[in-house]
Amino acid sequence: MNERKKERIAIIDGVRTPFCKGNGVFKDIEAEDLGAEAIKALLAKTNFPADDVDEVIFGNVLQPVNSTNIARVLAVKGGVPESVPAYTVNRNCASGLEAVVSAYNKMLLNHAKVIIAGGTESMSNVPIMYGKKMKEFLMALTKAKSWGQRLGILASFRPSFLKPEIPEIADPLCGLSMGQTAEILSREFKIDREEQDKFALTSQERTVRAQKEGRLAEEINPVALPPKYDKLQFVDDGARENQSLEMLSKLKPVFDPYTGTVTAANSSPITDGAAALLLMTESEAKARGYKPLGYIRDYSYAALSPSRMGLGPAHAIAKLLTQNGLKLSDIDLIEINEAFAAQVLSVIKALDSKEFCKKELGLDQPVGKIDLDKLNVNGGAIAIGHPLGASGARLVLTLLKELNRRNQKRGIAALCIGGGQGEGILLEVE
To answer: Which terminal residue of the chain has fewer beta carbons within 10 Å of its beta carbon, N or C?
Structure first.
């Protein structure tokens, strides 16, 4: 193993596709092709020679059955030479951030100088499977050696064999969907419907403003739409202009129709999209004359009860601050993935709760209250969208771009993770 020599790891730049609603304009584009688009755009934007990439690492959650190591497929399709290795990571909703952290660790160990890291997801094309009886029927049919055997097997067919098994975004450990876990947190932290809708409305308003002012356009590369590829998609299409609390209040709860408060409007939508980042060691960036967007200072993981998975960012943020001897007030901007309004609001309340911080985090004092003027300043996943494997990389890109715009120094991005985990990253800008 190479001698470990720690130097700063730089994020040179990043590119993402628009994030678009599932079964919409990207429904005919596979996850591998969205990822390939992001890599092509990244290489063009940075004018970086593809031959000099040491490795590609991409996050993906709903892995296509025909592209099991999707990172390798999208890397080659994206113009990276076949001689460059690639692998896929999956930490559910933090998979895009996991790819960035994996690249960071490899570079700290001197195993690479240049890595492309990111994430991709086509939630429109989630694999839908047939049940076991249909599988056994098809297997028997392919093994039949005579017409008589085939006819006998065909006679055994029943229409019920065709019933599909549609995957649910639910946790196998606690048996709850992610929305149901958000309902648990809304009750635990006493977050009512109006508070959630207000948070969702703010997310929408901030995203619409960021779109109009061109801030989000700085990180997006347009994608040509099939089948004719004669039209381009330039923007995230989940943001809704002219929303009001009155309009949001009319929607019915999705996960608990009787006493619930989590609706489609205060949750992140099903989304397709991809993001890619170019990472280098600081010495390599200087040698090549690149001015990085920023540097990775540290990261953190945490685990907790799967039924309260939405609190993952609270655990990860607290751990990250402690590891680096920082206070919440030392952080200029924060990005927390908006899986659900109730979930983000629970994180905010948890970090400011002395009881929670003592019992759950082992701290004598609360971490502190997150300033909402520092949180998701360009809106979040409720408006922008949440393509599972890509969101972590998108948060890093959005955060670094905004820190540079404001001439600020330090930011944290964090996500909750299905299964009961949290992940955070501490970024710095010079």
So the answer is: N
